[in-house]
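Figure 2 data, in text form.
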Amino acid sequence: MNYFPTYLAIDEAFCNRKEELSRMIYNLKGNAPVLLISPRRFGKTSLALQAFKQIKWPYAHVDLYKALSQEDIEKYILNGVGNLLGQLESTPKKLLHLAGDFFASLQIKVVLEKAGVKLEFNQNKISATDTILKSLEKLHEIAKNKKKHVILFLDEFQVVGEIAKNNSIEAAIREAAQKSTHVAYIFSGSNRHLIEEIFNDKKRPFYKLCDHIKLNRINQDEYTKYIQAAFKEIYKDIINQESLKIIFELTECHAYYINKLCSLLSQNKILAHSKEILITWQRFVLENKSSIERELALLSLNQRKLLIFLANEPRITGLFSKELTQQVNLTSSSIQRAIATLIEKDYVYIDENKFYKILDPLIKDVLNNKF
């Protein structure tokens, strides 16, 4: 078993998130749409898939990240619908008949494949907005007639807001979600600023539609129990508290980096202790230094300057004070513009003590020259 996956953590590898998981399942059963919000790599997809696995309903995970046009959005969503049809109808002949009838009025051709149905789109057809609305309404009717509940998980949903500027696709999906009693809708996205614009703006269709589930860091007590159990299974030995403390300090309980560091440690032949943990993290930072530097090169000079300052001064509150502006060598207005962008892009967050902190511990350690 992979106790520390760095992509999807489900089944035995799923750690805690008990409250969020309970809310997800409650909303699914009540057919209430859900918006999952968190920084990147905090486990939104893992949480969703774990909930789907527990509720045992057919689901389609529609990743909109690569969509570049309204037609692309339409194709991704309709392929998700086709996926669900394949789960609602087991025999190939019946599936082809069901899908053929389903998409015929939308001027979309259906071809049967081993993995289910493949859709072939005609260029001369009705608008993407109308096609999406009609297909979602028809999906609801089929699921209702079959007395089944299905889940449509629309990931990287901020892309819809970026591409469809007139909000027509948002309005179509909201209309379908509001009416449906047998299709549950889950929305998620990696750009918190854009996704919150879609769902918090009073003038946009999704305002007050969803239950917002925000994922924060998993607390140390839960991680302690999980890591101890995992390492005991791997090494037949107990990891000591000092080693756990170093893991938490280095990763700052960031879900991805907890799993990444523990995954690297679990490859050793013997259980690692404090020194080996530090060396393993140092090697990881150095291996990723150049890619982080390339990423940060895309930021403005003032944004990089402020990030470097925060990497070396982790307990900053009065960011616009005269003393601090002199330290950073930026005007108060320049700092204000830079920090707004860094927060918007999830490079910086404000913790419960009102300290400005770098969200990603790898970026912080690349910038503070500890290693």
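Caption note: The chain has three domains: 17-214, 220-294, 299-367.
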